[in-house]
Amino acid sequence: MRVLITGGAGFIGSHLCDYFVDKGNAVICMDNLLTGRMENIAHLLGEKNFNFIQYDVTNYIFVDGPLDWILHLASPASPNDYLEYPIQTLKVGALGTHKALGLARAKKASFLIASTSEVYGDPLVHPQGEDYWGNVNPIGPRGVYDEAKRFAEAITYAYHRYHNVDIRIARIFNTFGPRMKHDDGRVVPTFINQVLRREPITVYGNGNQTRSFCYISDLVEGIYRLIQNDKVRLSNLGNQNEMTILDFAKLVMKIMNVKCEIVHKELPIDDPHVRQPDISRAKEFLKWEPVVSLEEGLKKTVEYFKNQFHHNK
Ligand code: UDP
């Protein structure tokens, strides 16, 4: 297969590049490096089946030759990043998805959009199944990401209905692993790096809000199963191992074998109170469920940040 991965230098995108190159596919990685990083794909640059193009996909996309799949991952994706780049986030979700879909149509390629559990907003249904329509504040600070992704899903479906493009939508829940940015503000890199620096751990609010964390290799496998199947177009992908952020802080300290002080900071506006994917659909149709335990995934992630930490000292 010949695959275009937008956002291919990002955290999830770069792991997808690895996966598809390893399986013997030709990969074109496109990224404007707004939040993606060359170091995530540096090891791939010499491969003959890998090409990198620095480009902003909110503009007309031109790719030479045939394409079988377009995996559209391009977007700032951490709360810090989309608060820093609100307009770019809206543009890549709307204009970027439009351009990527136009390319899929022209090339008769199949198309996958990386959507998000944020389409469920601060959910009133728990756990969140694909049939839930969500509880999103369009004009809140997170609205720039949530609504961009909701629009992206809508236009993806429209291209399917009106132009017959073969589409998949992956609603990705909290995912973690090596190649996250140490300062992207998300809870996993933040807590690990605070412990590495022996700084206090910043728990927002009382820490009773919950998240469910999926390790990157499980997520990549889920995306692969989703594009291989022809029964479902839309699926949640995430781990059901739900825990409070306070318990998560304690777990990180336990795994790193360090005790740090916990300080409470103000809870960000519209921070979802609970989040856990209902993955019955993925289990039934994709025969997929996560296999890496949180402890195992965290140990690998801690190793990654330890190396980065020593490297940057
Ligand atoms: N969080 C926290 N301390 C931090 C960073 C995040 O308590 O230093 C909390 C945040 O308020 C949220 C959860 O951890 O409830 C997960 O945040 P993250 O930014 O990783 O992603 P989200 O799931 O909110 O998109």
Give a topology summary.
Elements: E1 2-6, H1 11-22, E2 26-31, E3 50-54, E4 69-72, H2 79-84, H3 86-107, E5 110-116, H4 143-163, E6 167-172, E7 175-176, H5 187-196, E8 201-204, E9 210-212, E10 214-215, H6 216-228, E11 234-237, E12 242-244, H7 245-256, E13 262-265, H8 280-286, H9 294-312
Word description of this protein:
The structure is a single chain. This protein is an alpha/beta fold and 313 residues long. The protein has two domains: 2-176 and 214-237, NAD(P)-binding Rossmann-like Domain (Rossmann fold); 187-211 and 241-275 and 292-312, UDP-galactose 4-epimerase, domain 1 (Alpha-Beta Complex). 39% of the residues lie in helices and 18% in strands. The protein has nine helices and 13 strands. Strands 3-2-1-4-5-6-11 form a seven-stranded parallel beta sheet, sandwiched between helices. Strands 7-10 form a two-stranded parallel sheet. Strand 1, helix 1 and strand 2 form a beta-alpha-beta unit. Helix 5 (187-196) packs across helix 9 (294-312). The longest helix has 22 residues, at 86-107. The chain is globular, with a radius of gyration of 19 Å. Uridine-5'-diphosphate (UDP) binds next to helix 5 and strand 8.
